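task queued by scheduler; priority normal; single chain, no ligands, no partner chains; default sampling; output format set to C-alpha coordinates
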Amino acid sequence: MNPAEQLVSGPRGRDLLLNLEDDTGPSGPLNLFHRAATTLDVESGVGTIYFPSSSPSPGKPVSHDCSAGGRLPDVVDVGDIAAAFRDVELAEITWPVLRDALACSVDNAAYWQEPYGAQILAAAPEMRGPLLRIAGELTDSPLMDVLTAPFDPERQWTLSVRGYTALTSGVGKRLTAERDGLIAREAAAAATFDPEKEVSGIWWSSPMGAPATTAPLPDGAPSALWFEEDSFDLGPRETRRIDVPGDARILEITGADSWADLCRRFPVEVTRQRYHDWHRTTGRRGRWVIPDWAAVAEHHDAVHLTHLGYLAAAGRAIDVDAGTASVIAGWNPGETYWLTDVEVGDPVRWSWDEDGRIWARD
Protein backbone atom coordinates (compact mmCIF):
# COMPACT_ATOMS: atom_id res chain seq x y z
CA MET A 1 0.00 0.00 0.00
CA ASN A 2 1.06 3.59 -0.53
CA PRO A 3 1.00 5.87 2.57
CA ALA A 4 -2.47 7.29 1.81
CA GLU A 5 -3.96 3.79 1.52
CA GLN A 6 -2.20 2.79 4.75
CA LEU A 7 -3.82 5.70 6.59
CA VAL A 8 -7.27 4.67 5.37
CA SER A 9 -6.70 0.98 6.17
CA GLY A 10 -6.59 1.32 9.96
CA PRO A 11 -9.12 2.57 12.53
CA ARG A 12 -6.57 4.91 14.13
CA GLY A 13 -5.59 6.28 10.71
CA ARG A 14 -9.20 6.91 9.69
CA ASP A 15 -9.78 8.65 13.01
CA LEU A 16 -6.77 10.88 12.41
CA LEU A 17 -8.03 11.86 8.95
CA LEU A 18 -11.45 12.79 10.31
CA ASN A 19 -9.77 14.95 12.93
CA LEU A 20 -7.96 16.87 10.18
CA GLU A 21 -11.32 18.05 8.79
CA ASP A 22 -12.14 21.09 10.89
CA ASP A 23 -15.43 22.40 9.46
CA THR A 24 -17.39 22.16 12.72
CA GLY A 25 -20.35 24.32 11.72
CA PRO A 26 -23.85 22.97 12.41
CA SER A 27 -24.29 21.91 8.78
CA GLY A 28 -20.65 20.95 8.17
CA PRO A 29 -19.62 17.41 7.19
CA LEU A 30 -17.93 16.68 10.50
CA ASN A 31 -21.04 17.63 12.48
CA LEU A 32 -23.20 15.55 10.12
CA PHE A 33 -20.79 12.63 10.48
CA HIS A 34 -20.77 12.62 14.27
CA ARG A 35 -24.52 13.08 14.54
CA ALA A 36 -24.92 10.05 12.29
CA ALA A 37 -22.31 8.08 14.21
CA THR A 38 -24.31 8.37 17.40
CA THR A 39 -26.88 6.02 15.86
CA LEU A 40 -24.21 3.34 16.06
CA ASP A 41 -22.93 4.02 19.55
CA VAL A 42 -23.31 0.84 21.53
CA GLU A 43 -23.34 2.54 24.90
CA SER A 44 -26.99 3.73 24.95
CA GLY A 45 -30.12 4.43 22.94
CA VAL A 46 -32.10 3.45 19.84
CA GLY A 47 -31.58 4.29 16.18
CA THR A 48 -30.52 2.74 12.92
CA ILE A 49 -28.13 3.49 10.12
CA TYR A 50 -28.68 2.75 6.45
CA PHE A 51 -25.91 1.75 4.07
CA PRO A 52 -27.57 2.19 0.66
CA SER A 53 -24.94 0.37 -1.38
CA SER A 54 -23.68 -2.18 1.11
CA SER A 55 -24.87 -4.66 3.71
CA PRO A 56 -26.76 -3.52 6.80
CA SER A 57 -24.69 -2.01 9.58
CA PRO A 58 -23.03 -4.44 11.97
CA GLY A 59 -23.71 -2.01 14.82
CA LYS A 60 -26.40 -2.45 17.43
CA PRO A 61 -29.48 -0.19 17.17
CA VAL A 62 -29.10 2.46 19.84
CA SER A 63 -30.18 6.00 20.77
CA HIS A 64 -28.30 9.01 22.01
CA ASP A 65 -28.88 12.22 23.95
CA CYS A 66 -28.72 14.81 21.18
CA SER A 67 -29.39 17.85 23.33
CA ALA A 68 -26.08 19.42 22.23
CA GLY A 69 -26.41 18.68 18.55
CA GLY A 70 -30.04 18.83 17.55
CA ARG A 71 -32.42 16.04 16.62
CA LEU A 72 -30.78 12.82 15.51
CA PRO A 73 -32.23 11.41 12.27
CA ASP A 74 -33.63 7.90 12.50
CA VAL A 75 -32.09 6.91 9.17
CA VAL A 76 -28.78 8.11 7.80
CA ASP A 77 -27.57 7.84 4.22
CA VAL A 78 -23.81 7.31 4.24
CA GLY A 79 -23.67 8.52 0.66
CA ASP A 80 -24.82 11.98 1.76
CA ILE A 81 -22.10 12.13 4.39
CA ALA A 82 -19.44 10.97 1.93
CA ALA A 83 -20.58 13.59 -0.59
CA ALA A 84 -20.25 16.32 2.04
CA PHE A 85 -16.66 15.29 2.74
CA ARG A 86 -15.85 15.18 -0.97
CA ASP A 87 -16.91 18.79 -1.45
CA VAL A 88 -15.46 20.45 1.65
CA GLU A 89 -12.38 22.67 1.41
CA LEU A 90 -9.62 21.31 3.65
CA ALA A 91 -7.71 23.47 6.11
CA GLU A 92 -3.93 23.80 5.97
CA ILE A 93 -2.22 20.92 7.76
CA THR A 94 0.22 22.52 10.21
CA TRP A 95 2.21 20.69 12.86
CA PRO A 96 -0.16 21.66 15.73
CA VAL A 97 -3.14 20.53 13.64
CA LEU A 98 -1.53 17.18 12.83
CA ARG A 99 -0.24 16.68 16.37
CA ASP A 100 -3.62 17.36 17.97
CA ALA A 101 -5.42 15.16 15.43
CA LEU A 102 -3.08 12.27 16.17
CA ALA A 103 -3.36 12.81 19.93
CA CYS A 104 -7.15 12.66 19.65
CA SER A 105 -6.97 9.45 17.60
CA VAL A 106 -4.71 7.82 20.19
CA ASP A 107 -7.04 8.92 23.00
CA ASN A 108 -9.93 7.21 21.20
CA ALA A 109 -8.19 3.80 21.17
CA ALA A 110 -10.14 1.22 23.20
CA TYR A 111 -9.44 -2.47 22.58
CA TRP A 112 -11.77 -3.92 25.20
CA GLN A 113 -15.13 -2.89 23.72
CA GLU A 114 -17.10 -2.64 20.50
CA PRO A 115 -16.00 0.13 18.11
CA TYR A 116 -17.48 3.57 18.58
CA GLY A 117 -20.11 4.57 16.06
CA ALA A 118 -17.65 6.96 14.41
CA GLN A 119 -15.21 4.10 13.83
CA ILE A 120 -17.90 1.92 12.24
CA LEU A 121 -19.10 4.76 10.04
CA ALA A 122 -15.56 5.74 8.96
CA ALA A 123 -14.99 2.14 7.81
CA ALA A 124 -18.01 2.21 5.49
CA PRO A 125 -17.04 1.67 1.81
CA GLU A 126 -18.63 5.01 0.87
CA MET A 127 -16.16 6.84 3.11
CA ARG A 128 -13.04 5.40 1.51
CA GLY A 129 -12.87 7.93 -1.33
CA PRO A 130 -13.33 11.04 0.84
CA LEU A 131 -10.81 9.77 3.39
CA LEU A 132 -8.30 9.00 0.64
CA ARG A 133 -8.68 12.61 -0.51
CA ILE A 134 -7.79 13.89 2.98
CA ALA A 135 -4.97 11.33 3.21
CA GLY A 136 -3.59 12.61 -0.08
CA GLU A 137 -3.39 16.13 1.34
CA LEU A 138 -1.46 14.79 4.33
CA THR A 139 0.92 12.58 2.36
CA ASP A 140 1.79 15.53 0.12
CA SER A 141 2.79 17.54 3.20
CA PRO A 142 6.39 17.71 4.49
CA LEU A 143 4.94 16.74 7.88
CA MET A 144 4.47 13.22 6.54
CA ASP A 145 8.17 12.73 7.31
CA VAL A 146 7.27 12.78 11.02
CA LEU A 147 4.82 9.89 10.56
CA THR A 148 7.20 7.75 8.50
CA ALA A 149 10.40 8.49 10.45
CA PRO A 150 12.42 5.36 11.27
CA PHE A 151 14.09 4.71 14.61
CA ASP A 152 16.36 7.61 15.63
CA PRO A 153 19.32 6.30 17.67
CA GLU A 154 20.45 9.79 18.71
CA ARG A 155 17.24 10.90 20.43
CA GLN A 156 15.53 8.26 22.55
CA TRP A 157 13.80 9.10 25.84
CA THR A 158 12.05 6.96 28.45
CA LEU A 159 8.91 8.30 30.13
CA SER A 160 7.87 8.09 33.77
CA VAL A 161 4.30 9.01 34.68
CA ARG A 162 1.93 8.69 37.66
CA GLY A 163 4.78 7.53 39.90
CA TYR A 164 5.75 4.71 37.53
CA THR A 165 9.37 4.51 36.41
CA ALA A 166 10.34 2.11 33.64
CA LEU A 167 12.58 -0.73 34.82
CA THR A 168 15.69 -0.67 32.62
CA SER A 169 17.56 -3.72 33.94
CA GLY A 170 16.58 -7.37 34.24
CA VAL A 171 14.50 -7.05 31.07
CA GLY A 172 15.32 -10.52 29.71
CA LYS A 173 14.16 -12.28 32.88
CA ARG A 174 10.90 -10.34 32.93
CA LEU A 175 10.18 -11.15 29.28
CA THR A 176 10.82 -14.84 29.90
CA ALA A 177 8.61 -14.83 33.00
CA GLU A 178 5.84 -13.04 31.09
CA ARG A 179 6.01 -15.54 28.21
CA ASP A 180 5.98 -18.51 30.57
CA GLY A 181 3.02 -16.97 32.39
CA LEU A 182 1.12 -16.53 29.12
CA ILE A 183 1.62 -20.18 28.23
CA ALA A 184 0.54 -21.35 31.69
CA ARG A 185 -2.55 -19.13 31.74
CA GLU A 186 -3.55 -20.25 28.25
CA ALA A 187 -3.41 -23.89 29.31
CA ALA A 188 -5.21 -23.25 32.60
CA ALA A 189 -8.06 -21.42 30.84
CA ALA A 190 -8.90 -24.42 28.65
CA ALA A 191 -11.38 -25.87 31.14
CA THR A 192 -13.42 -22.67 31.57
CA PHE A 193 -13.07 -20.88 28.23
CA ASP A 194 -16.42 -19.89 26.72
CA PRO A 195 -16.34 -17.72 23.57
CA GLU A 196 -19.90 -16.55 24.22
CA LYS A 197 -19.16 -15.04 27.61
CA GLU A 198 -19.13 -11.24 28.00
CA VAL A 199 -15.90 -10.94 29.98
CA SER A 200 -12.84 -8.74 29.79
CA GLY A 201 -9.22 -9.30 30.65
CA ILE A 202 -5.75 -8.59 29.29
CA TRP A 203 -6.02 -6.77 25.95
CA TRP A 204 -2.53 -5.48 25.12
CA SER A 205 0.16 -7.05 22.91
CA SER A 206 3.14 -4.91 23.88
CA PRO A 207 6.12 -6.55 25.70
CA MET A 208 5.21 -6.24 29.36
CA GLY A 209 8.19 -5.49 31.58
CA ALA A 210 10.22 -3.92 28.77
CA PRO A 211 11.23 -0.23 28.88
CA ALA A 212 9.88 2.00 26.11
CA THR A 213 11.34 5.10 24.48
CA THR A 214 10.23 7.70 21.96
CA ALA A 215 11.96 10.43 19.98
CA PRO A 216 11.19 14.18 20.18
CA LEU A 217 8.60 15.70 17.88
CA PRO A 218 9.02 18.99 15.95
CA ASP A 219 7.95 20.91 19.10
CA GLY A 220 10.81 19.30 21.07
CA ALA A 221 8.76 17.09 23.39
CA PRO A 222 9.16 13.29 23.19
CA SER A 223 6.15 11.87 21.40
CA ALA A 224 5.06 9.78 24.41
CA LEU A 225 4.12 13.04 26.14
CA TRP A 226 1.54 13.70 23.45
CA PHE A 227 0.48 10.23 22.34
CA GLU A 228 -0.48 7.76 25.07
CA GLU A 229 -3.15 5.11 24.76
CA ASP A 230 -5.47 4.74 27.74
CA SER A 231 -4.09 7.97 29.24
CA PHE A 232 -5.56 9.41 32.43
CA ASP A 233 -4.33 12.92 33.15
CA LEU A 234 -1.97 15.75 32.27
CA GLY A 235 0.13 15.52 35.42
CA PRO A 236 3.89 16.15 35.45
CA ARG A 237 6.09 13.75 33.52
CA GLU A 238 9.74 12.81 33.73
CA THR A 239 11.90 11.69 30.80
CA ARG A 240 15.40 10.25 30.71
CA ARG A 241 17.59 9.93 27.66
CA ILE A 242 19.09 6.54 26.90
CA ASP A 243 22.42 5.79 25.26
CA VAL A 244 21.73 3.59 22.24
CA PRO A 245 24.63 1.24 21.41
CA GLY A 246 25.96 1.55 17.89
CA ASP A 247 25.38 -2.13 17.21
CA ALA A 248 21.78 -2.21 18.52
CA ARG A 249 19.56 -4.51 16.44
CA ILE A 250 16.36 -2.54 15.76
CA LEU A 251 13.30 -4.13 14.17
CA GLU A 252 10.99 -1.69 12.38
CA ILE A 253 7.22 -2.26 12.40
CA THR A 254 5.86 -0.14 9.56
CA GLY A 255 2.41 -1.65 9.20
CA ALA A 256 0.29 -4.79 9.34
CA ASP A 257 2.60 -6.86 7.11
CA SER A 258 5.67 -6.46 9.31
CA TRP A 259 3.63 -7.21 12.46
CA ALA A 260 2.17 -10.34 10.85
CA ASP A 261 5.66 -11.46 9.85
CA LEU A 262 6.88 -10.99 13.42
CA CYS A 263 3.98 -13.07 14.75
CA ARG A 264 4.66 -15.83 12.22
CA ARG A 265 8.32 -15.99 13.24
CA PHE A 266 7.78 -15.90 17.00
CA PRO A 267 4.16 -16.80 17.89
CA VAL A 268 2.71 -17.46 21.32
CA GLU A 269 -0.98 -18.31 21.52
CA VAL A 270 -3.24 -16.08 23.63
CA THR A 271 -6.65 -17.07 22.27
CA ARG A 272 -8.33 -17.77 25.60
CA GLN A 273 -6.78 -14.66 27.19
CA ARG A 274 -7.48 -12.12 24.43
CA TYR A 275 -10.48 -13.63 22.63
CA HIS A 276 -13.33 -11.71 24.27
CA ASP A 277 -11.79 -8.23 24.16
CA TRP A 278 -10.34 -8.61 20.68
CA HIS A 279 -13.53 -10.12 19.31
CA ARG A 280 -15.48 -7.15 20.61
CA THR A 281 -13.12 -4.57 19.14
CA THR A 282 -12.51 -6.26 15.75
CA GLY A 283 -15.59 -8.45 15.24
CA ARG A 284 -13.33 -11.41 14.45
CA ARG A 285 -13.74 -14.87 15.96
CA GLY A 286 -10.86 -17.32 15.88
CA ARG A 287 -7.37 -18.07 17.11
CA TRP A 288 -5.16 -15.21 18.39
CA VAL A 289 -1.40 -14.91 18.81
CA ILE A 290 1.07 -12.22 19.86
CA PRO A 291 4.85 -12.14 19.48
CA ASP A 292 6.87 -14.22 21.94
CA TRP A 293 8.94 -11.29 23.13
CA ALA A 294 11.47 -13.47 24.94
CA ALA A 295 12.15 -15.26 21.65
CA VAL A 296 12.22 -11.99 19.69
CA ALA A 297 14.89 -10.73 22.11
CA GLU A 298 17.27 -13.41 20.89
CA HIS A 299 17.33 -11.73 17.48
CA HIS A 300 16.47 -8.06 18.11
CA ASP A 301 17.40 -5.58 20.84
CA ALA A 302 14.40 -3.33 20.28
CA VAL A 303 11.18 -3.06 18.25
CA HIS A 304 10.11 0.32 16.86
CA LEU A 305 6.55 1.05 15.72
CA THR A 306 6.47 4.02 13.35
CA HIS A 307 3.68 6.57 13.64
CA LEU A 308 2.37 5.50 10.23
CA GLY A 309 2.63 1.83 11.20
CA TYR A 310 0.50 2.56 14.24
CA LEU A 311 -2.10 4.48 12.24
CA ALA A 312 -2.31 1.75 9.61
CA ALA A 313 -2.42 -1.29 11.86
CA ALA A 314 -3.22 -0.64 15.54
CA GLY A 315 -6.58 -1.92 16.72
CA ARG A 316 -7.44 -4.04 13.67
CA ALA A 317 -7.37 -7.80 13.20
CA ILE A 318 -4.10 -8.59 11.40
CA ASP A 319 -4.09 -11.93 9.58
CA VAL A 320 -1.04 -13.99 10.50
CA ASP A 321 -1.93 -17.21 8.66
CA ALA A 322 -5.04 -19.23 7.90
CA GLY A 323 -7.24 -19.08 10.97
CA THR A 324 -4.84 -17.01 13.07
CA ALA A 325 -4.68 -13.25 13.67
CA SER A 326 -3.18 -10.68 16.02
CA VAL A 327 -3.81 -7.12 17.21
CA ILE A 328 -1.39 -4.27 17.90
CA ALA A 329 -2.77 -2.97 21.20
CA GLY A 330 -1.26 -1.06 24.08
CA TRP A 331 1.44 0.52 21.91
CA ASN A 332 1.87 4.23 21.30
CA PRO A 333 2.80 5.68 17.89
CA GLY A 334 6.53 6.14 17.40
CA GLU A 335 7.29 3.95 20.41
CA THR A 336 10.30 1.65 20.74
CA TYR A 337 10.27 -1.24 23.20
CA TRP A 338 13.65 -2.43 24.43
CA LEU A 339 14.11 -6.18 24.82
CA THR A 340 17.44 -5.75 26.56
CA ASP A 341 18.76 -3.63 29.42
CA VAL A 342 19.37 0.06 28.73
CA GLU A 343 21.31 2.85 30.45
CA VAL A 344 19.47 6.08 31.28
CA GLY A 345 20.66 9.64 31.91
CA ASP A 346 19.53 12.39 34.22
CA PRO A 347 15.81 13.21 34.47
CA VAL A 348 14.18 16.01 32.48
CA ARG A 349 10.82 17.08 33.90
CA TRP A 350 7.84 18.31 31.88
CA SER A 351 4.58 20.00 32.82
CA TRP A 352 1.45 20.78 30.84
CA ASP A 353 1.18 24.48 29.97
CA GLU A 354 -2.56 25.08 29.86
CA ASP A 355 -2.21 28.57 28.36
CA GLY A 356 0.05 27.49 25.51
CA ARG A 357 -1.56 24.03 25.23
CA ILE A 358 1.89 22.42 25.02
CA TRP A 359 4.27 20.32 27.10
CA ALA A 360 7.03 22.53 28.52
CA ARG A 361 10.29 21.62 30.25
CA ASP A 362 10.39 22.63 33.91
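post-processing summary
- The mean pLDDT is 86.
- Residues 156 and 215 are 5 Å apart (CA to CA).
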